[in-house]
Amino acid sequence: MPSIQEPLHFKPEEPKVVVAQNEKMVDVQDKEVTMEGLCSVAAYDLWTPLSVPGQRPKPRYKHGAAVVQEKMYVFGGNHNGRYLGDIQVLDFKSLSWSKLEAKIQSESSESAEPVLVAPCAGHSLIPSGNKVLSLAGHTREHTESLSVKEFDPQTCTWSILRTYGKSPSSRGGQSVTRIGDTLVVFGGEGDGRSLLNDLHVLDLETMTWDEFESTGTPPSPRSEHAAACYADRYLLIFGGGSHSTCFSDLYLLDMQTMEWSRPEQHGIIPEPRAGHAGVTVGDNWVITGGGNSKKGVPETLVLNMSTLVWSVVTSFEGRAPPTSEGSSLVLYTINGEDFLLSFGGYSGRYSNEVYVLKTSLRPSLSSSRIDELETNGMTPLSAEVNSSRGPIFEIEKLRDDKNNKGGDISKTLVQAVKREKNQVEEKLEQEKLQSFHLKKELADVENKNAELTKELQSVRDQLSDEATRASKLEDEVSEIQQRLQKMQTLEKEFELLRSERGGGSDKSGSGSNKRPGSVGFRRWYGDDES
């Protein structure tokens, strides 16, 4: 499948942002962010190119990126089929790139040993305190099991962490998601291009691998998908691809019961994609880029994980990291504002650009909200994920009805009314988003229809010109045929004259003293007289 094994090739286009505002499409010109910093970004939910001075990293895709202490660390990737092993750092304070020369750890310990990290792509980079973990990935050298590497920015050293238990097999294009004090590895592409859908959990405290048996129907084997954690309990898997197709399905795994399910999705219908990137902002899961065998995906989507409603944040037409396959997406918060940063990727060419989006998303069900519900004697619980209600979490009955007082009941009723109001508002917002999506699709169809009408008219004009030309050619052919008939008639008459003239000369005899021409002359008149 092209979106998995090789980059998609997109048509070159000039960057253009299309944003939804009051259900209207508004074109926004590119505006670069300079050294004033990320705080200079005024507009919300618009992708803006970030101008970073200094030497840029080598263009790449399928790399890893993680934010640690106001810096974005980029490791590895693929460029023209060549694996990369460099570490590039984007400092958010100075807005400048720098390249780190990683060293071998000088002293080994019980838990770690020094290592030279091989270039790789399709790996996962996870922040862990003040360090960065790198898991899995494709390399030139064959390895049997998945390794866990750690990079220390303070000492600029790599080390391989010693793990216990049965390690997962080596792979690339997997997802690695942090849930509490564990890392959950799902799927990917193993040796011989074999696709996987196995699940492995690494306990970060004991560094022990566990392979859990799950119930329900898991996602089909895939790679280049996206994964997210919700409420430190649920693992969500979206999209990805096999060797023949791309997916747009959504799966949910309850890490307490280890049961897979396919919850009902609401809002817009996401297009199938693989190679996309995702990051969570509170209860919202933002998805950018990716592609399928037909095209790349220009929309930046968001899934409200508490209601399972999809919506469009913005749409970016053109070659850029937010619309590319194999780009990275990280979240950085400064002065209370959340910024998304998209780097690299492939969209017909390899990119080393950085785009930034200041998001207006806010948590729809924050931890403080959950604490408030628990304080009021109400408990969030898992909803029937396959039901038509949609939300993952609902509020169940009071834990102990016997201890309820009148004031508590009144408070509960008020909260119930508020919840119902919120549900109505969410449904209304969902209908607005769906209406916006339908209007956008209708506008696209009308534009395509107008283009096809122009092409049809052009073809009709060409056919008319060809018909006129054919008619003229027919007239010319008819005229030529008439001339040919006349020439044939003249040729027959000429042959007749020649034959008659030859016969008259023979009859005149050799002893005649008359001129040859007079014989013919008298013959003509002699025939008339007789």
UniProtKB/TrEMBL annotation:
- One GO molecular-function annotation for this sequence? fatty-acyl-CoA binding
Which GO biological process categories is it annotated with?
lipid transport
Sequence segments annotated as region (Disordered):
497-530
Q: Which SUPFAM superfamilies match?
A: Galactose oxidase, central domain
User: Origin, by domain of life?
Assistant: Eukaryota
Acyl-CoA-binding domain: which residues? 411-501
State the UniProt keywords alphabetically.
Kelch repeat, Repeat
Please name the InterPro entries in this protein's record. ACBP4-6_C, Gal_Oxase/kelch_b-propeller, Kelch-typ_b-propeller
| One cellular component (GO) term of this entry | cytosol
Check the record and name the PANTHER family matching this protein.
ACYL-COA-BINDING DOMAIN-CONTAINING PROTEIN 5, KELCH MOTIF FAMILY PROTEIN, EXPRESSED
* Protein name per the record: Acyl-CoA-binding domain-containing protein
Q: Which organism is it from?
A: Hordeum vulgare subsp. vulgare
